Amino acid sequence: MSTFSALIPIVLLVSLLCLSYILFSDGASSGPNQVALLASALAAALMGRFYGISMDDIRDAAVESVATGLPAVFILFAVGALIGTWAMSGTIMAMIYYGLQLMNPHFFYVSTVIICALVSLSIGSSWTVAGTVGIGLMGVAHQMGMDPAITAGAVISGAYFGDKSSPLSDCTNLATAAAGANLYVHIKETLWTSVPALALTLVFFWFIGTPASSDTGMTLANIEAQYNLSLVHFLPLLLVLGMAVMKCPPFTTIFVGALAGGVLAVATDPTKVLAMAGSADTASVLAYVKGVWAAMSSGYVSVTGDAEIDALMTRGGMESMLNTVWLIMSALAFGGVIEKTGILERILEPVFKIAKSTGALVTSLVSTCIATNALASDQYMAIVIPGRMFKTAFVRARLRPEVLSRAVGDSATVTSALIPWNSCGAYMAATLGVPTLAFAGFAFFNIITPIVTIAFALFGWRMLTSTDAEVELEMEAEAPTGPHHHTVDQIS
Length: 492
What we know:
mainly alpha, 28 helices
């Protein structure tokens, strides 16, 4: 396949996505983007068929690619259920209530980054942080009159610091596996780029914070009039964080947290549960079950009579995640087709070939990771495919595997959240309630980190080199298949 032919579906996708945002604005991700992705997937499939690949094989590749996203889909459903029961039980409102008392508006964005960074470093999951602590912080921002897009950028900045630096993170482990690196050496090296990026991020958020004081007295009084809050309402949050630290599967952790929210609602404010069940005058076990069930499936509907609180707390439910699930499935189908037809490799190959110096090699890798995030729409593919493609080139440049794994983590992991049709970008938008393009410009850590890793390469900082014996062993290990013959499944 020629480069021109390979570019046709890509140019079509970019054109359709741009037209989608022009015509539908913020509503683009609610259907128009999915149409653009599926139309481009069909164009890519027809191009593959023209070059001799059977439609059955292309179809199977699309199905397999969508299947890889099913864990993310189930996590999304669990997060929707969690938001619904936590809104009903008062857990979200407790985070808002105590957050309003503890957080100063001038330091709010900085505090948000630090809180999310510490939690994500402890549990290794940006998704869990955004779906729990992040939701509460967004509520605090709303009540304090802070900008929701900037707040979402602060949440994501902190969440991804831990996701790329924690030994508990699946992205960290996948990057080291793809590069053949040592996990703990990788973590040590990645801190060399992560810490400066985080420091710059905090500086940016410090300067865009508002020095004006926020009068939250009326808001706190309204909350106290509608809720009887205590530290008991944090029990579901503590349960989720504890299960995450123990490395329980994300879906199990979040879904158990959703059930815990439902139990807490029944125990502390049963009238809200009965109202959700439509059985305000009849208290029974089935009525309580129905109320919790409704909050998990369709979301909680607040009827306190306070318009501001009702607007904030009417949210959640698995149903609210369906648009995001649709977007993820469409994007993964397109990614599977362009990988099977060779379009992705054909486009990335020229980038791979022009990398001669160390700086050019790392810059090419970072660019390839970002491009794969945009084209394949999946963070894991953006970690594995470029990591394997560039492995031999890094060996020949006498660079240690940890340099490769660090560069992959600094680019593939963090930039996934900045792309609206990538599974990570779609998840963050759905969970935090802010469109991806609105918060992308404020996710400073995610923007700065790839730049920092390129700067390290250009100036030759922490470019660890291998000995002759290590280079020989690594070349022998790569010799049977070479860098272009490893599949995502094999590495996973």
